[in-house]
TrEMBL record, chain A:
This is DOG1 domain-containing protein. It comes from the Eukaryota. SMART domains: BRLZ. Keywords: Activator, Coiled coil, DNA-binding, Nucleus, Transcription, Transcription regulation.
From TrEMBL, chain B:
It comes from the Eukaryota. Belongs to the glutaredoxin family. CC-type subfamily. It comes from Arachis hypogaea (Peanut). PANTHER family: GLUTAREDOXIN (PTHR10168). This is Glutaredoxin domain-containing protein. Keywords: Cytoplasm, Redox-active center. Residues 14-75 form the Glutaredoxin domain. It holds the Pfam family Glutaredoxin. It is found in: Cytoplasm. GO terms for cellular component: cytoplasm.
Length: 433, 102
């Protein structure tokens, strides 16, 4: 009697346990051939190591009728196992299940089905050898039961196959939906950039500021395109060893282009200062490094120093001083912003509740709001000075460096931000489960 | 204007501010960072504050505060101060006026 291998299936061990019990019963009652004295022990549902403990004790001769009863029990149990398997395989009705959940469920049931089948066959081989020893005339009834069981096994296999196909179709459907969703998101993003206002609320005031932000986003996108073009021109000139005069022309154009964006930001700061401060017009990775609505000049210079070698002593001093000045100005502006935050918080939190008359409270409230509004108005000034700092730093850098060094610096700056933008794209497109 | 000029000449570095102005706070902090000890005059706490503000505007200071004077001479508002600081001129002006030594 082949020892059943341990299978990770509730049904199988349950099944085998019962068989063990039945064989025990059959053996013990071998002296009494009457069927109805055979009591079937209750089917215990206890998963665990499967073994037929009776294999040691099986006698050579087993009563024929007992054995037929046993075979019937076997078929019934096989039926029960199959029906349980059917429950585990997700049906087509439960479409709302996650594809992955289905993926997890089916293979297990498939495995258990197949192993179940094998073990059942083994058991039948075992039982058949027993029967052969017992009697020859039991062959015919055995065949009938064999056929029934075989038919059921085939049905089970068919059901499993159908469920696999259903799972496959479902997963494919999910994949195509996901693709469509990504496409729609991209279209929406593009439409937004082109200034088509897509509003979830119908708020008029909201749409006004939205237009200011939207317009800036469009202008910024155009500005980036133009900058890419200019940088490519510069790179080609540097690689083809163009003259200093030629380089200077292209560099002047690039610096003037930087002036453009600072000017555009100034206009946008008047329209929607919070949009600029939020950094939503930049990519996620760039936003990570956001300081007062843009990049930190001091950080940029730190990155450049290594790439600009060789520098003369004077140049090194100049760049170091520039970095320090930049840092100091940044710190000063940051402190001013902190003072603004604190002041705003104090304005909004100071309030007497119900001590004076209601009219006094209203006047108080209005006064506080007016003060807070005034403070918010100064944000524009801070962004303006932050951009002023960036602009001045770029120009001073250009003054300190030679033409060729300036070219390299501008290329390095562009490459750095370009990589940050690429990183953002990769991040946004990363596979998620 | 006389009062402005008078106060501006009293110390090497003088900054006119308003107590509610946070940009003034930034510029003042910058001066401290550089080692200068500027005299700070809050216009909203000065009885002649209004006239002084008018005088500062007439000097071309917009916004009127912060208004920076070094060595008695009008330097500018926050934008000018930052620009001068970036190209190193601010430090030199302070050294020349003996507001700082290095």
């Amino acid at each position: 009697m082949p020892e059943a291998s341990r299978v990770d299936s509730f049904c199988l061990s349950d099944f085998d346990q019962s068989i063990g019990n039945h064989l025990e019963n059959a053996v013990e009652l071998s002296g009494n051939p009457v069927n109805n004295s055979l009591k079937v022990s209750s089917q215990t549902i206890s998963p665990g190591p499967v073994h037929l403990g009776t294999s040691d004790r099986l006698p050579i001769s087993v009563d024929r009728s007992s054995f037929m009863y046993l075979e019937d029990r076997l078929s019934l149990l096989a039926q029960k196992v199959q029906s349980t398997n059917h429950i585990i395989i997700p049906s087509g009705d439960t479409e709302n299940q996650e594809g992955s959940a289905m993926a997890d469920a089916s293979p297990r049931t498939d495995i258990s089905t197949d192993a179940d089948t094998d073990d059942k066959n083994q058991r039948f081989d075992g039982s058949q050898s027993l029967a052969a020893v017992a009697s020859d005339s039991s062959d015919r009834s055995k065949d009938k039961t064999d056929q029934k069981t075989l038919r059921r096994l085939a049905q089970n296999r068919e059901a499993a196959r159908k469920s696999r196909l259903r799972k496959k179709a479902y997963v494919q459907q999910l994949e195509s939906s996901r693709l469509k969703l990504t496409q729609l998101e991209q279209e929406l993003q593009r439409a937004r950039q082109q200034g088509i206002f897509i509003s979830s609320s119908g708020d008029q005031a909201h749409s006004m500021s939205g237009n200011g932000a939207m317009q800036f986003d469009v202008e910024y996108a155009r500005w980036l395109e133009e900058q890419n073009r200019q940088i490519n021109e510069l790179r080609a000139a540097v690689n083809s060893h163009a003259s200093d005069t030629e380089l200077r022309m292209i560099i002047d154009g690039i610096l003037a282009h930087y002036d453009d964006i600072f000017r555009l930001k100034g206009v946008a700061a008047k329209a929607d200062v919070f949009h600029l401060l939020s950094g939503m017009w930049k990519t996620p990775a760039e936003r990570c490094f956001l300081w007062l609505g843009g990049f930190r000049s001091s950080e940029l210079l730190k990155l450049l120093v290594n790439q600009l070698e060789p520098l003369t002593e004077q140049q090194l001093v100049g760049i170091t001083n520039l970095q320090q000045s930049s840092q100091q100005a940044e710190d000063a502006l940051s402190q001013g912003m902190e003072a603004l935050q604190q002041s705003l918080a104090e304005t909004l939190s100071s309030g007497s509740l119900g001590s004076s008359g209601s009219s006094g409270n209203v006047a108080n409230y209005m006064g506080q709001m007016a003060m807070a509004m005034g403070k918010l108005g100064t944000l524009e000034g801070f962004i303006r000075q932050a951009d002023n700092l960036r602009q001045q730093t770029l120009q001073q850098m250009h003054r300190i460096l030679t033409t060729r060094q300036s070219a390299r610096a501008l290329l390095a700056i562009h490459d750095y931000f370009s990589r940050l933008r690429a990183l953002s794209s990769l991040w946004l497109a990363r596979p998620r489960d | 204007m006389d009062r402005v000029k008078d106060l501006a000449s009293k110390k090497a570095a003088v900054i006119f501010t308003k107590s509610s102005c946070c940009m003034c706070h930034s510029i003042t902090q910058l001066f401290y960072e550089l080692g200068a000890s500027p005299a700070v005059h809050e216009l909203d706490n000065d009885p002649y504050g209004r006239q002084m503000e008018w005088a500062l505007r007439s000097l071309g200071c917009n916004p009127s505060v912060p208004a920076v004077f070094i060595g008695g001479k009008f330097v500018g508002s926050s934008k000018d101060v930052i620009s001068l600081h970036v190209d190193g001129s601010l430090k030199q002006l302070l050294i020349d006026a003996k507001a700082i030594w290095f």
